[in-house]
Amino acid sequence: MESTDSSSGSQHPRLPPGFRFHPTDEELLVHYLKKKAASVPLPVTIIAEIDLYKFDPWELPSKATFGEQEWYFFSPRDRKYPNGARPNRAATSGYWKATGTDKPILTSNGAQKVGVKKALVFYGGKPPKGIKTNWIMHEYRLINNNPSSKPPGDSANKKGGSLRVCSSSFNCL
Question: CA-based Rg of the chain, rounded to a whole angstrom?
């Protein structure tokens, strides 16, 4: 279901002419992240799976399957400490710092909370003296009310983390 773009040699999904990928927060969680976490086939293979913290934000566009101003990735949620809950957000030449409060993502009828959206900003250097950049990432996580219901064979869960989908973009502030 994928074709190769001979000009760049990268893999791009076959999509109909005029296709735009602008999912809502709920669509990202329900139709992509939830299915990915449950090892269910996705509607279209349009979101790349990478460990995004192994790259600086300006390297991410070349790792994406699709996108021009905004890119989407599935990424494992690593922990800073093996037995802790604190996430590790260090990148190659800086770190992603959470900003604002977590935004709950509800179903379209507002009846059920399906996940959480967190905004992060990239800072170059080492904390606490990092230099703020214009790179912004939104991290989406599923709400897991039953921790024992992890999908079998999910490598992210074997590492003690969880899977998430991230949207990264460069915004001129």
Answer: 16
Return the beta strands (E) in 30-128 as ranges: 48-49, 70-77, 94-106, 113-124
Residue 68, domain CATH: 2.170.150.80
Q: What does each of the 173 residues of the chain score in pLDDT, given as a tens digit?
A: 333 333 333 455 677 787 788 889 999 999 999 998 889 988 888 899 998 889 999 999 999 888 888 899 998 877 777 777 778 888 999 999 999 999 999 998 988 999 999 999 999 999 999 999 999 999 998 886 444 444 333 333 333 345 666 666 554 32
CB atoms within 10 A of CB 55: 17
User: What tokens appear for 112 in the block?
Assistant: 């059920």
Number of domains in the chain: 1
Q: What is the pTM of this model?
A: 0.75
Domain with 79 in it: 2-170
CB 111 within 8 A of CB 97: no
Please report where in the chains the tokens 């991410």 appear, as a residue.
60
**The CA-based dihedral angle spanning residues 89, 164, 24, 94, taken in that order and rounded to the nearest 10 degrees:** 20
User: Distance (Å, rounded) from C-alpha 67 to C-alpha 61?
Assistant: 8
